[in-house]
Amino acid sequence: MASTPPESSYAILGLIDKLPSSSGHELAAAADRSFAHFWPISRTLLYRELNRLATLKWVTSTRVEQTRLPSKWTYRITDDGERALAAWLSGPVTNAGSYRNDVLLRFFFAHRLSATEVHALLEDYRKRLLAQRDELAALTDKLGSIYTPAARMGRISALHGLRTAEARLGWVEEARAELSDDNTR
Amino acid sequence: MASTPPESSYAILGLIDKLPSSSGHELAAAADRSFAHFWPISRTLLYRELNRLATLKWVTSTRVEQTRLPSKWTYRITDDGERALAAWLSGPVTNAGSYRNDVLLRFFFAHRLSATEVHALLEDYRKRLLAQRDELAALTDKLGSIYTPAARMGRISALHGLRTAEARLGWVEEARAELSDDNTR
DNA sequence: GTTCCCATGTAACCCGTTACATGATTTT
DNA sequence: AAAATCATGTAACGGGTTACATGGGAAC
User: Fold this and answer.
1) How far is Cα A13 from Cα A3, in angstroms, rounded to an integer?
2) If you average pLDDT over residues B45-74, what whole number do you get?
3) Model pLDDT, residue A96
4) CB A105 to CB B7 under 8 A?
5) pLDDT score, position A184
6) Please, which pLDDT band fits residue B67 given cuts at 50, 70 and 90?
7) Is the CB of A52 under 7 A from strand C?
8) CB-based contacts of A108: which residues, under 8 Å, 6+ apart?
9) Cα(first)–Cα(last) distance of chain B, in Å?
10) Do B152 and A113 touch (CB under 8 A)?
11) What is the pLDDT of residue A1?
């Protein structure tokens, strides 16, 4: 009774499907370029998942010798893998919504902080959000000029993060306004 | 060289500071009521963290016998605990921003799905977001009528989730619009 | 001559989750 | 008679992270 693999397995499987005959190294780079902003995959995890996919026979691995570069493994999706990918894609979404935010956690206990410290906390958050927003805006722009279905999906995904960051930047202003009228009451 | 405890330890520590002489059970209920929407704590984790806090001597635990209810442990923050809490609060934020979204992950590989399936995916997401938004709107409203500093912070925290949900609902519409003009090109 | 890129891993850790256990009392 | 509340746990698992290892070739 093999339990279902984690979502990250399917993330990698989907990448292999998209980019056949890639090496782990290339897949890692592709993951960083494409979905890292909503589904980060560390190097170690990547290689572990490649192993899992191979033992599940969802992918095949081939050794490729190179002359001036180190030898590498390349991966291709199998029929079983394609079925698994399709089933996962149309299957139920498991944990949409769970997320943790340690800025909010600190903010929640901010009655123990001075006004300046609360301000610093919000300002730090704002800076992070700004950086995030700019990054995603740049990505959206870049993908906007590429006319492939993959780029289109990538762009819309990036838009999700962009809209989220924008909304949260708005929240920072809202929070500041709320906190500044502590004269009322 | 004791490594720093996880963020959840401080979440519990902060709660004990706010609600002295509470039992684990009461703290769990308080956590569910207050910051569960951005920092969920499972029952098991709660009790584990209470243990950790006690061995760190950041809290003291006292056994309280009850006549018609089971005996319980109650917790109080120590001076060491207060110092640790203050240091954490004004210390650097560690992982603001990391979050995973499995709807987006599926969406990213949606070229393998039919238009109807993509639509179903988005619709499912929309429903979750709507439920989330309504829940947070209700919470914001409820806290808006309580005039304590704690309630105020709770309300602003809830607002963060509310704004996020609203923005993402907007994104769903955006995504739909983008996907429907596949006649262009 | 140091640093970056290619390329693939191992070891260890730990936070968080799920499932299960117990047992009295009060409410429906 | 069943279900909810109070109250506190244990056991087992696993996904993800961080740190470390290796080793050649190319670039600055």
Assistant:
1) 17
2) 94
3) 57
4) yes
5) 52
6) confident
7) no
8) B14, B34, B35, B153, B154, B157
9) 61
10) no
11) 53
